[in-house]
Structures are given as C-alpha cells and as structure tokens.
Design goal:
- The protein is mostly beta strands and 184 residues long.
- The chain is 5% helix and 47% strand.
- It has one domain.
- A 5-stranded antiparallel sheet has the order 1-8-5-4-3.
Length: 184
C-alpha cells in the first residue's frame, strides 16, 4: 500500500485547524504530542527551501505596489504513532502572511504541497492542498494552521525515521524565479 496524505476534517466539514488567526498562536514542536518516555523515531517534516515563501503579485507588474500578499511557512510540528506495520504521522503547518498594497479582496489564496520521500529520497506520494488566509478588518498580518495526516506503510523492522515529509508552496515558474533571486 503506498503512502497517503489526508487533510484532517473536523465536525463542520472543514479542516480541524482551519483558519486560525495569529493572535499569539505558536505551534510547538513534536513535544506537544509526546507522552513521557523516550521519543518515538518519527519521519522528519521539513520545508523545501525554494518553496518556503510566496510573494503573489497582481497582473499589472512586479513592483512593491503590485504585491497582493507575501506568505511563508513559519513552523512545522509533527508527531507519529506506529500501528500494524505502518507509521501514522500528523503534521501541522503554520502559514503566516502580510497583506500587500495591491490586495482588494482582504485574503490570500494559495496552494501548498506535502510529499513523502523514503531514505533514498524517492518521492512516494505528493499531493497539493488549497488554503486561504483572511485579513479581517484592518489587519495586515494573519495566519492559518493546516493539519494533515500521513499513513506510511513500513517493511518489517523498518523505522519511520528514515522517511522525510516535505512541505512547500506550489509556485508558478515566475514565483520560483522570484524566490531564487530574492532568497533571504
């Protein structure tokens, strides 16, 4: 059975950690999920460097006044459980954004991807998800936490720590070029 990615859905039909504003929200590391005892060897969850940020421009140009919003992956937290020859991983990704001068909709819509790779860096599964960050009232900064679950089948006595979960923004070729030219 191949590795799979699933957004966690809450009782209202939306993602459980749907649009949370950044009013002091900080996603803790793996420790927030662990019980006492030695840590479980979980797959690493990491951001893809070239896809860790997004600057979305309107259609008129590439000037500072043409920016709709800027977003970045602020933090990734993960936890895992082993069950019947597989590791189930829960990943929380915190996105933060700044509203740009060209934004008239008071929101930033974007796509992000999550990919699972084995120890040899072979991509086993990749899926894209859509997300929105709202800028209510006069807010110019906001955020959202997305939570996903991954199911990774393991061979006998294979540790889950050999796998890597990659997270990044789905970028257009122009957005990728912009990131590479303006790396932080």
């Amino acid at each position: 059975m191949p590795a799979s990615l699933h957004p966690r859905v809450g009782p209202g039909g939306g993602r459980a950690a749907g649009a949370l504003l950044l009013s002091g929200l900080v996603v803790a590391g793996c420790a927030m999920f662990q019980e006492a005892g030695p840590p479980i060897p979980c797959p690493r969850a990491v951001t893809v460097a070239d896809a860790a940020s997004l600057t979305r421009f309107d259609a008129t140009g590439r000037d500072l006044t043409d920016v709709l919003f800027e977003a970045e992956i602020a933090q990734i937290a993960s936890a895992c459980e082993y069950d019947d020859g597989a590791v189930d991983v829960t990943v929380q990704v915190q996105f933060v954004a700044l509203r740009g001068p060209a934004d008239q909709q008071r929101r930033g819509d974007f796509d992000y991807f999550v990919a699972i790779a084995d120890a040899g860096q072979t991509i086993l599964a990749r899926e894209s998800f859509d997300a929105t960050i709202e800028f209510p009232g006069n807010k110019t900064q906001a955020g959202v936490v997305e939570e996903l679950e991954q199911h990774i089948p393991l061979r006998a006595d294979e540790p889950g720590a050999g796998y890597v979960i990659y997270v990044g923004f789905v970028l257009t070729p122009d957005e990728l070029a912009f990131n590479r030219q303006n790396s932080r």
